[in-house]
Every structure is written in C-alpha cells, then in structure tokens.
Amino acid sequence: MMPLLDNVQFALPEMIILATACIALLSDLFLKSYYKNAAFCISLIGLAVAACASFLFIGNFKAVILNGLFISDDIAHLMKLFIYLSVFLGFVYSRNYIDERQIPAGDYYILGLFSTLGMMVLVSAHSLLTIYLGLELLSLPLYAMTAIRRTNSDAAEAAMKYFVMGAIASGMLLYGLSLLYGATGKLDLLDIANAVAANWQEQSGLLSFALVFIIAGVGFKLAAVPFHMWAPDVYQGAPTSVTLFISTAPKIAAVGMALRILTIGLVDLAAEWQHLILVMALLSTGIGNLLAVTQQNIKRLLAYSAISHIGYALFGILAATTAGYAASLYYVLVYSIMTVAAFGLILLMSRNGVEVEMVDDLRGLNKRNPWLAFLMLIVMFSMAGVPPTVGFFTKLLVLKALVDVKMTWVAVIGLLFAVIGAYYYIRIIKVMYFEEPKDNSAIILPVSSQIIYSLNCLSLLFLGLFPSVLVNACTNAFA
Q1: Nearest to residue 149, comparing CAs of 240, 20, 40, 26?
Q2: What is the gyration radius of the CA atoms in the chain, in angstroms?
Q3: Where residue 266 falls among pLDDT bands split at 50, 70, 90?
Q4: Lesser CB count within 10 Å: N end or C end of the chain?
Q5: What is the DSSP string of 348-402?
Q6: Distances (CA, A) of 61 to 72, 78, 191
Q7: Cis amide bond preceding 370, omega within 30
Q8: Would you tell me how many other CB atoms lie within 10 Å of the CB of residue 455?
Q9: Helix (H, G, I), strand (E, B) or coil at 28
Q10: Is the pTM of this model over 0.90?
C-alpha cells in the first residue's frame, strides 16, 4: 500500500476540491437556514486554496504517481490554474442571477465543484482509466446543471439533448479506448506509446479503427465540427450561468485530454491523427465563423464562436510540434478568460427580471454604462484577434506553428476565416456604440462585481501588451 501512496502530495489540489465539495454539500444541508450563501463562500475559498497549491507545484519535476494513473507536471498545473480562475469568476458572476431566478444555489455550486474535480483528474490523467473516470466526473454534473432550472422547459430540452449526445460520445470514446487496450495490452499512456512503436505494423488496422472512435469522443467534448450539433442548442437552452460554466473550464479539460492521448499515448500515430484533426479544425473554423454571422441570439452566436475558436486551438495540435502544442495550450487558456468575460457581461446585465438573450439587448450600452461598453469592446476585439489584445497573439502563435511545419495553406485559410469572424464581433460593438438603447435607464452594478469584471477584461489588454509571461510558461511546460 505504501508505494502506491508515494508522492501523493502531488494530488493535493484534487483533495482540496473534493473536500470543498463535501463541506459545501454539508453546509448547504445544515447551515442554509442560518447563512444562505455558505456553499458559495466555501466554494470560492476552496478554489483559492487549490489554486495556491497548484501554483506552488509549477516548476517542480514531473511526477507520475498512483502506479501510473496520475501525472503532475506544468501542463496539468497551468490548466488547473485557469480552470480554478474560470470557475471562480463564473460563480461570482452567477450569484445574483441564480438568486433572482430562484435556481437552487447550493446545487449549482456543488455540482460545479464536482465537475471541476473531474476536469482536474482529466488534465492529470496518465492512464486510460483516469481519462475515462475524469471525463465522466466532468460530464455528469453538467447534465444536471443544464436542467437545474426545473420550471424552464427549454433547459429540460437542452439537458436531454446534451445527455443523449454526451452518452453516445462517451460510448464511442470508451469503445476506442477498449480497442486501444486490446491492440496494446496496456493502460498507462507511456506503455501504450512504447507498445505502439514496437507493434504498429502488426496492429495498424485495429489502432486506426481505435483512433477514429477516440477522436470522435474528443471532438464531442471540444464541440468541434462535425460533433458540434449539441452546442448551440445547449448554450441557448441552459440558464446563462450554466452556459458560462459549460463554455469555459470544460474546454480546457477537453484540450488537455486531447493533448494527453495524442501527444503521449499515440505520438507515433501522428501521421494518422493529423488527417482527422486537419478536417475537424478546418470545418470548425469555417462553419463556426460562417454560421455565427447569421445569429441574432447572443448565446447561439457565442456557441458558434466557441466552435471556431476550438478549430484554431486544434491547429496547434495539428502542427504536431512542441511549439504547436504550447500554442494550443496558450490558446485555450486565453479563450477561457475571454469567454468568461463575454458571458459575465450577459449575466451582470440580466438583473431585475431582465434576461439578455439577443444581440439587440446590448443596444446603446455605451449610453447606459460607458465603462461596461468599453470592457465588452476589449473582449470582442480580443476574440476577433485585434492587437494589442491577447487574442491577436493566440491566433498568431497557432498560425505560426502551422507555417513552421510547411502547412502554410492551412494557416492562410485560418486567417481568412478569422477575417470573416471579425464581422460578428464588430457587429456587437456597433450595436453597443452606434444604436439607440431600448431602455435609457443607467446600468448600475455592485462595486465588487464591477471591480472583478474590470480586472477580468483588462487582463486581456495586459496579457496582450505583456504576453511573454504566459507564453513562456506554456512553452516551458512542453520543453
């Protein structure tokens, strides 16, 4: 038993989040009548403590623990830091929205914490067992969160679609992992890589078949075309607080899963999976940007925007170089902060019975609250990739990774779709600044919410002006 628990301190962040979720569950059960925000406060404290633990592990040597089930390295801890940040901001932005609409607050935070634990297990997975365990622990709470507003039929419909499609995708991934185990006889990703290198010619048919199912399962979690069909409906039907959660941290975990499986376990099959990733990436950037142009519902617009952004993140994996992997990691980390800011504004404006659903609901925002309009302008410019925001560097790095491996034509297509994508982001800016508001009343937010939201949005400008810290951290993680 003792060798199994050697270096178990590297799983300290997971232990903290698990303990936080259990304490929040008990507090919601026993302390709710005394202090209704107990689960909320405990959740934020737990996320902050776990973030400190993960930060302290960055720069330490790589450690594989629990008999090869779990890996602690800079890639995992960087992803975990941004998962905590996304979930923390999501909880803060959602608090008033949840209270006003009488959504069960304790259930939301507790399910969110268990899903966060699943994401952490997934990005630190070093075995097929922990990959599937993390994926299910991530996904199952999300299905319940989507239907958490029980009186809303749209939420129930979205949850059913999400659950059915998620079950099919999980089954496909499990089948692919089973075939991979059958071909190699190994569960540990490094052992799988060694077995594939030794027996590729003998098992080529079975491995190729397994690869297709694995990529399909990963593609669903990323909402990459052609596995994207659930995303617009779920984003629109779910309560906005849940949409924010689904659209940010789980994307980091899904990219982490793709990096673990493809760059460790199946690294010798790069020539095979590059073809599949190429098709998914080009279709995602193209279809995502083109369909977003026609959307009037802002949540559906951001859903198609997310699909296109995942396409760009896949470009980094497509390059199959350490620079490409680092660019993909950098892209998805920045994407999570941009998206939490975009949905944060929608949540903060959805007050006093008002539900911000359409692009037109942002009309004349500059006249109602100039500071909020300016912050949203930064977010939209960053998503469009306009310098000096950080979004410019995310696209630059993934396209540069493609050019470096002589995939210039793919980079050119990606650049063209980025120009198309800029249209619908600029349309939102036009609506905020150049159209008359439906309601002339000023939008006044609590000081705490305004400070946190301002820091969130201004960080996109700061990281654009000083990108080297995060870029170097991502590059060193793959060194």
Answers
A1: 240
A2: 21
A3: confident
A4: N
A5: HH--TT----BGGGGTTHHHH-HHHHHHHHHHHHHHHT-TTSHHHHHHHHHHHHH
A6: 8, 14, 20
A7: no
A8: 12
A9: helix
A10: yes
Q: How far apart are CA 139 and CA 119, in angstroms?
A: 9
Residues 443/368, Cβ–Cβ less than 8 Å = yes
**191 sits in which H/E element:** helix 189-199
Share of the chain above pLDDT 90, in %: 49
Residue 76 CB-half CA count within 13 A: 29
CB 306 within 8 A of CB 223: yes
Q: Are 312 and 328 in contact (CB under 8 A)?
A: no
Residues 6+ apart with CB under 8 A from 478: 75, 322, 325, 326, 329
Q: Which residue type, as a one-letter code, is found at position 416?
A: L
- Given this model, what pLDDT does residue 86 score? 94
Query: How far apart (Å, rounded) are the C-alpha atoms in residues 49 and 55?
Result: 10
Residue indicated by tokens 């941009």: 338
Q: For residue 442, name the pLDDT band (cuts at 50, 70, 90).
A: confident
Q: Return the biggest CA–CA distance within the chain.
A: 71
Among 122, 131, 87, 117, residue whose Cα is nearest residue 253: 122
- Can you tell me whether residue 436 is helix, strand or coil? coil
CA distance 228 to 406: 29
Residue 380 in tokens: 């939209």
Cβ–Cβ < 8 Å for 43, 91: yes
Where along the chain do its domains lie? 3-477
Q: Count Cβ atoms below 10 Å from residue 456 Cβ, excluding itself.
A: 22
Residue recorded with tokens 């309601």: 439
For residues 133 and 287, give the distance between their C-alpha atoms in angstroms, rounded to a whole number: 32
- Distances, alpha carbon 88 to alpha carbons 16, 55, 83, 473, in Å: 15, 16, 8, 22
Residue whose C-alpha is closest to residue 268's, from 200, 174, 349, 337: 200
User: Dihedral, CA atoms, 182, 184, 186, 192, nearest 10 degrees?
Assistant: -140
